[in-house]
């Protein structure tokens, strides 16, 4: 393929990915009340949060934003598939057989991160936010700020749980090796602690440690993955 043919292929893969996001967004909008009331607002109810909308059309725009993000999550397998199909011509036939496994495990890793954030990180984070400060100050939280924290923590945890899959991909193309990962283990742990602090803004150190521990564990798993699937000379 020529350079322009590669660009044409990339354009169609992007279009297919966007179509998947649109379909996922429409599906999310159909069940938007369920996603908002039965999933995203449950942590607030358990933490006894008083949520309020401060803009005339705040809830309308908020619902659209949530539908798009959920649509993005629902279309994740299709996005990974389109990315893999774009780079697959550069791979050998024995490497192309991994496409189904990569799509499945990428989705599974992301969902594990989402579940971890929802059931472990968020309850502790919101509990700390609700109890911190003076008892004479009433905490009324804006709904857009609340959902911004919820979605950012969930998406952030989902992305960092993709570390083993990233290790697999970089090892297969020869960029990453187990020796490199072992050599920079201490640097990586410091980076993980910083990343945990960024993904848990304004929360207590307990929540940051709860995220840092699985990240360190994922890094060790990534070394093992790199050792198994590293590119042979």
Task: Write the SSE topology.
Layout: H1 3-30, H2 32-40, H3 42-46, E1 50-52, H4 58-74, H5 76-87, H6 93-96, H7 99-131, E2 140-142, H8 143-160, H9 163-172, H10 178-183, H11 185-199, H12 205-229
Parallel strand pairs: 1-2
**Domains counted in the coordinates: how many?**
2
Largest sheet: number of strands, sense, barrel closure: 2 strands, parallel
Structural class of the secondary structure composition? Answer: mainly alpha
Percentage of residues in DSSP E strands? under 5%
Structural notes for this entry:
This protein is an all-alpha fold and 233 residues long. The chain folds into two domains: 1-161, no CATH class; 162-233, no CATH class. The chain has helices spanning 3-30, 32-40, 42-46, 58-74, 76-87, 93-96, 99-131, 143-160, 163-172, 178-183, 185-199, 205-229; strands at 50-52, 140-142. Helix 4 (58-74) runs parallel beside helix 8 (143-160). The longest helix is centred in the middle third of the chain and has 33 residues, at 99-131.
């Amino acid at each position: 393929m020529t350079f322009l043919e590669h660009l044409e292929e990339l354009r169609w893969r992007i279009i297919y990915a966007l179509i998947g996001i649109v379909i996922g967004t429409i599906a999310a909008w159909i069940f938007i009340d369920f996603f908002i009331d039965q999933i995203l607002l449950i942590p607030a109810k358990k933490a006894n949060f008083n949520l309020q909308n401060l803009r005339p059309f705040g809830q309308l725009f908020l619902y659209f934003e949530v539908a798009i993000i959920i649509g993005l999550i629902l279309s994740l397998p299709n996005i990974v598939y389109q990315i893999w199909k774009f780079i697959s011509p550069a791979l050998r036939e024995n490497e192309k057989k991994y496409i189904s496994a990569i799509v499945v495990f990428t989705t599974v890793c992301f969902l594990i991160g989402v579940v971890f954030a929802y059931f472990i990180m968020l309850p502790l984070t919101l509990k700390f936010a609700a109890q911190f400060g003076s008892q004479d100050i009433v905490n009324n939280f804006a709904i857009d700020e609340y959902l911004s924290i919820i979605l950012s923590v969930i998406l952030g945890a989902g992305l960092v749980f993709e570390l083993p899959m990233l290790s697999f991909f970089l090892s297969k193309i020869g960029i990453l090796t187990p020796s490199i990962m072992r050599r920079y283990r201490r640097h990586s742990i410091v980076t993980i602690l910083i990343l945990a602090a960024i993904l848990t803004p304004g929360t207590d150190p307990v929540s940051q440690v709860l995220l840092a521990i699985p990240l360190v564990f994922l890094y060790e798993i990534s070394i093992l993955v790199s050792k198994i699937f590293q590119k042979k000379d």
